[in-house]
Amino acid sequence: WRKNMDSSMLSWPSPWGIGIPGWHIEDTAITEKYFGSRYDIHGGGMDLIYPHHEAERAQMESLSEKNPFVNYWMHVNLLNIRGKKMSKSKGNCIYINNILKNDSPNSVRLFLLSKNYRGRLNFSEKNLERARQFYKLIEKTVSYLRKIPKKRLPLESNDNPTIKKFFEYIENDFDTNGATKILRIYLLRIEHSLKRKSVSSAKALMHLKDIYTMADILGLKL
């Protein structure tokens, strides 16, 4: 196939035929151009640790003579479907554009965040439905809080232990599983208070502020 390559493609002659850039060095060159020889976070699938990311690291650290190449590696685990690895070769892929025909981006995001990024996530209708119900709880709670008449009171400093606990999980290797559980518990407590009609204007403002803070960190658009 290399004999039939388009002449406009980046290539060079060699004793063995037409040469083209390799995958490993391509990524090293791209990241060096846009981020420099060292940067903070590098992500990717766990299946890329070796040889791809090991090659990137070896190449850049040898070239720049700076160490480390990356401060934090975030390798995402593989996605399962019905207990088996989702992959093109197995023909069991589910594409996001098809999922979004029936589900909101927020529901899908909550499903993906239900597991720490290093954990193995299993795609199933049951797990997706759990995420849908979670998002409905968020929507319902926010809607109720918005309806409470608000006084124009300045927001005081918020020492809400829920927010502190939420950030503890986020700062612990981006533990979104723990963080979303904290958000769910907080919403259920607010729901209980709303049923007892014990939420004041000031409390409603505080609750909304806290929910927006956590939702924003999780990438939810409310």
Structure, explained:
- By secondary structure, this protein is α/β, with parallel strands linked by helices.
- The protein contains eight helices and seven strands, in the order E-E-H-E-H-E-E-E-H-H-E-H-H-H-H.
- The chain has helices at 23-35, 49-64, 96-99, 105-113, 125-147, 161-171, 176-195, 201-217, and strands spanning 12-14, 17-19, 39-45, 70-76, 79-81, 84-85, 121-123.
- The strands form three sheets. The protein has a three-stranded mixed β-sheet. Strands 1-2 form a two-stranded antiparallel sheet.
- A hairpin with a 2-residue loop joins strand 5 and strand 6 (84-85).
- Helix 1 packs across helix 2 (49-64).
- It starts with 11 loop residues before the first strand and ends in a 5-residue tail after the last helix.
Topology order in helix (H) and strand (E) letters: EEHEHEEEHHEHHHH
Q: How would the global form be characterised? A: elongated
Tell how many strands the DSSP assignment holds.
Answer: 7
Number of helices: 8
Instruction: Point out poorly predicted stretches.
Output: none
Gap between N and C termini = 50 Å
Q: Structural class, from secondary structure content?
A: alpha/beta
Order of adjacent strands in the largest pleated sheet: 6-5-7
The helix content is: 40-55%
Strand % is 5-15%
Report the radius of gyration as a whole number of Å.
24 Å
- How confident is the prediction overall: mean pLDDT? 89
Largest sheet: 3 strands, mixed
